[in-house]
Amino acid sequence: MTTANRRLIRPDAPESRRDSTVRSVRRKQAPPEQTHAEEYYYLKQMTAKTPMVVVLTNDEELVGWIEWYDKGALKLNRRKGPNLLIRKDSIRYMYKEEELKQGRRTGRRSGGEKSSG
Description:
five-stranded antiparallel beta sheet
């Protein structure tokens, strides 16, 4: 028996080869549409009852802590004045009240004097 004349016989399967290569190539998945960062931030501030400064689109500043929130609004409890239900689309931004006390938010309401010179 001679081994030199042996030939390996394989069935033609070009279709199955193409399918397997297509299946093995995976696309990078798109990032999630919802990161839940807003939810996490609100829950953290609600749990700690962190005093917040909410700046509205008309530049009015409200100070209080967030009692609850939903998709379109949040409830702000205040020491002075009534508690408020604020629509999120009327909020420009918000920050912790302690940042105001530490002097991090001195842009508009700076208590220092301007030098005229």
